[in-house]
Amino acid sequence: MGVIGDVFQWLTDPAHWSGSGGILVRTFQHVWYSLVATGIATAIALPIGVFIGHTGRGALVAVNLTNLGRAIPTLGIIILVFQLAGYGFVPVLVALVAVAVPPIVTNSYIGVRSVDPEVRESAEGMGMRGRQVLWQVELPVAMPLIMAGIRTSTVQVVATATLAAYVGLGGLGRYLIDGLSQRDLPQVVGGAILVALLALATELVLGRVQALVVSPGLAERGADAAVRAKVEKAA
Amino acid sequence: MTDGPAPVLAAELIRWSWIGDHLDDIRDYLLQHVELTGLALLFGLLLAFPLALAAVQWPRLYGPILAFTGVLFTIPSLALFILLIPFTGLQIQTALIGLTIYTLLILVRNMVEGLRGVDRDVREAAQAMGYTRARQLFQVELPLALPVIMAGVRIATVTTIGLVTVTALIGWGGLGRLFIDGFTLDFTTPIVVGIVLSAALAFAADLLLVGLQQRLTPWARSRRG
Description:
The complex is a heterodimer. Chain A is mainly α. Chain A has helices at 2-12, 23-55, 59-71, 74-85, 89-113, 117-125, 130-164, 173-182, 185-213, 219-229.
C-alpha cells in the first residue's frame, strides 16, 4: 500500500524530528503534560483514597467517582472548559487532572480496604498504632492496587492530552488534529503511531516502576491488579 | 473570570431556544450514538465469546489473549481510529472496529472469570446427569456466570458510550458531534447538551442492563443486586 510508504517516509524524514514543531519537542511536551497532570492528580487522589480506605468513611464516593468519570465524555469537558476559560495550559491541565483523579481514588481505596483483616489485627496485636499500621502494613500491601490506579490514570492522561490538541494543546496530538484538518494522511497516521507507542511505553515504564516499589511477596498481586485496573478508558 | 453575576453565566451556558430549534439534529445524533454503541457491543460479544471459550478450554491461551487485548486497550482511542483510516477510510467501519476492539478486554476477562467461577460440584452434577458439553455450557455454566458477564457488559457499555464521542473527530461521534458544533459556533449550549445527554444515555443504558440481568437471573435476586 502506498500509504504505508508515505507514513514511513514522514516518520523517517529528519526535518520532522527537529525544530519547535518536531517529533522530539512534541514528544517531550506530551510526556511533560502527562507527568504534571498525573503528579498533581496523585497528590490529590492518593491521600483521599487511602483515607477512605483506612477509615471506611465516604466509601460510596470512592466507588461512584469512577463510575461517574466513566460516563462523562472527556472530549466534551475539554471543549467546554476551552469555551468558558479560553485557551490556556491551566484550564486544559485542570481537565487532565480531573480525568486522572477517579481511578487513583478508587484503586487506592480498594487497595487499603482489601487488606486482610487478620493482617491488620496481627499488626495491632504486635502493638502498632493506627498510623504505624497505615504506613507499615496497609500501604505496602495496598501498593499493587495503588500503582495499578496510577498506571491507568497516566495512560488515560496520555490519551486525553492527545484530544486536547483539538483546543490548542501541544504534544503529539497536534499531528493528529492538524493532519486531519489538512487532510495530510501520512502526518495523521505517523502521529497516531507515535501516540500509540508513547501510551504503550508509558505502560511499560510504569510496570517497571511498579515492580520496584511493590514488595516481591506481592508481585503476583501486582500483575493481577494491573490487568484488573484496566477497565478505565475515557479517551 | 467575569465580574457578572452567576445568572448571566448560567444564561450563557444554556440557550434554551437553540435546543428547541435543533431537536431534530439532537435526535439524529442520539440515534447514531445508540446505533454505534449497540453495534460495537454486539460485535464485541460475538468476538469475545469464542475467545473466552478458548481461554477456558485451553488455560495457556488466557495470558496471551489478555496481553493482546490489553495492548489494544492501551492505545489512545483517537490514535486507534486513525490507524484504521488507511484500511477503512472515514466510513462507519472505522468507528465501529475501533469501538469493538475496546470492548474485548473487559468482555473476555469477565466471561472467563464468570465461567471459571462456576462451582466444580455443579459442573460434576451436570456431567453425572448426562449433559453433553454444549448443553452443560449453555444451560448450566453460562446462566451461573451471567452476573459476572453482565458486570463486564455494563462497564463495556458505559465506556463505549463515552468513546463514541471521540469518533466525532473522524466524522461520526453521535452526541459528540454537538461538541464539534459548539466549538465551531463558539457557543456552549451544544456542548452542555452533548455532555448531559451522553452521561444520561450511559446511566439509562446501565439501568436497563441491571434490569435485564435481574430478569435473566431470577434465582439471584434475593441474594445479590
